[in-house]
Specification:
It is built from six helices and no strands. With 220 residues, the protein is mostly helical. The chain has a domain at 51-150.
Length: 220
C-alpha cells in the first residue's frame, strides 16, 4: 500500500511539474505575442535610395518651383552649409548652386564646393560620392563651354573691329583719290580758263590795233 501511494505521489508531482512548465511556456508565448515586433534595420540600399530621393526633391523644387520657393530652398541649403562646412551639408549647397533655372545659381562656387567635398570622401555615402562626382563633371563641362564661348565671342569682335578698320582705311583711300582727282580737274580747268583768257586778251589787242590804224589809212 505504501509503495502504491509513492507511485501516485510521483505521478502527481510529475504532472504538476509538467503543468507548471506548460503554464510557463504559455505565459511566455503570450508575452511574446503582446510585444511589438522589432523594427527592422534599413538596408544600405534603402538608405541610399532615401538620400538620393531627398537630393532630387530639392533639385526639382529649385528647377520647377516659384521664385519664392527657390529662394527658400537655397536659403535652407546655405544655412545647413554655414552650420557644417563639410559632408552632406556642403554637397547639398553645392547641388543647389549648380542647379539650372534659378537666378541665384553660381556654377563657379558650386565647382569649388564639389571639389572640396570629394576631397573628403569618407564623410559621404557611396551614393553621395557618385552624385557629387557626376555633378562636378557636368559643372566642369558647363564652365569649359562658357569659357570657350567667351573666347569665340572675343575673337569675332576682334575680327569685326579689324574689318571696320580695314573698311575705314579703304574708304579713306577712295576719298583721298577722289579728292586728288577733283584737285587735278580743277587745276586743268583753271589752266584752260587762263588759256582762254589769254586768247581773248590777244584778240582784244588785235582788234584795238586794227581800230587804231583805220583813221591813218583813210586819211592817206
Amino acid at each position: 500500500m505504501l509503495h502504491s501511494d509513492k507511485q501516485v505521489w510521483r505521478r502527481l508531482v510529475a504532472g504538476g511539474s509538467l503543468g507548471a512548465l506548460l503554464l510557463t511556456l504559455g505565459c511566455s508565448s503570450l508575452a511574446n505575442l503582446q510585444k511589438p515586433p522589432p523594427t527592422p534595420t534599413p538596408s544600405v540600399e534603402i538608405q541610399n535610395a532615401g538620400q538620393l530621393a531627398s537630393y532630387l526633391e530639392m533639385l526639382q523644387r529649385l528647377v520647377q518651383g516659384s521664385p519664392t520657393e527657390q529662394a527658400e530652398v537655397l536659403a535652407g541649403a546655405r544655412a545647413g552649409y554655414e552650420q557644417q562646412h563639410q559632408g552632406p551639408a556642403q554637397l547639398r549647397y553645392a547641388l543647389a548652386l549648380a542647379a539650372p533655372s534659378h537666378p541665384a545659381r553660381d556654377p563657379a562656387l558650386a565647382q569649388k564646393l564639389l571639389r572640396e567635398t570629394l576631397a573628403a570622401p569618407e564623410k559621404l555615402t557611396s551614393v553621395e560620392r557618385a552624385l557629387a562626382l557626376l555633378e562636378l563633371q557636368r559643372v566642369d563641362t558647363e564652365l569649359r563651354l562658357q569659357t570657350e564661348n567667351q573666347r569665340l565671342v572675343a575673337a569675332v569682335e576682334r575680327e569685326r573691329n579689324r574689318d571696320r578698320s580695314s573698311t575705314g582705311t579703304a574708304a579713306s583711300a577712295v576719298a583721298t583719290r577722289r579728292l586728288q582727282a577733283e584737285i587735278d580737274e580743277n587745276a586743268r580747268l583753271k589752266r584752260a580758263l587762263d588759256e582762254a583768257r589769254a586768247k581773248l586778251d590777244a584778240i582784244a589787242n588785235i582788234e584795238t590795233n586794227i581800230t587804231d590804224r583805220k583813221p591813218v589809212t583813210e586819211g592817206r
